[in-house]
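User: Teach me something about this protein's shape.
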Amino acid sequence: HTLCFALAALSAICLVCSVLWVGDIAQLTHPHMDALSVTLAAIGLIGLLYGVSTVFSGQLVAAVVALVIGVAALVVFVLRQRRIPEPFLNLEPFGNRAFVLGVLLVIAALMTVFSMNILLPLFMESALGFTPLQAALTLLPACLVSCVLSPVAGKVFDRFGVGWLVSVGMAVIACFVLALSFTGGSTTSVRIVLLYAPAIAGCACVMGPAQS
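Assistant: First, the predicted structure itself:
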């Protein structure tokens, strides 16, 4: 509850600051909202989410039907965006190979961060007997490493480019996430920190440069 209250307060502060100090620098237009595109996107996303969430729960037929409907709706959505003059979502950037590669790298890094932030606390609290506070404190050093390293990775990117920085970052992620997969019931919090922090550091080296 405290976490939700804190995020709500920060969101309110950001809202007020944006209204007071953030101005429009781009030319504003008034495009037409395509209702059919919105409907197709909603059906597609709901179908995919429902299908993926139920595929392992024993409701295989319902999951397959939802996935088929979701994929079909998204295919129609994509085809429609390429034909209408004012698309709901401009998909032209996906015709750029570098853009697609950057998106895939960001997705891979975010999947690592989100999955570890869910799985590690569950593992520490259920298998190792940690309290929620102990599990959170175990993850804290990696969060601090990410905060410190992200601007450093940005400066390295500005000077040397994206190639070797992202390659090293992905290699570090792969090595330390693999090492984390071998942790067992006798694992200590120190070992988790020593394996998790480098993995998050690798994500910091990937996400910023890949987004840029």
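Now, about its shape. Residues 77 and 83 are 10 Å apart (CA to CA). The two ends are 35 Å apart (CA to CA). If you'd like, I can walk through any region in more detail.
User: That's plenty for now, thanks!
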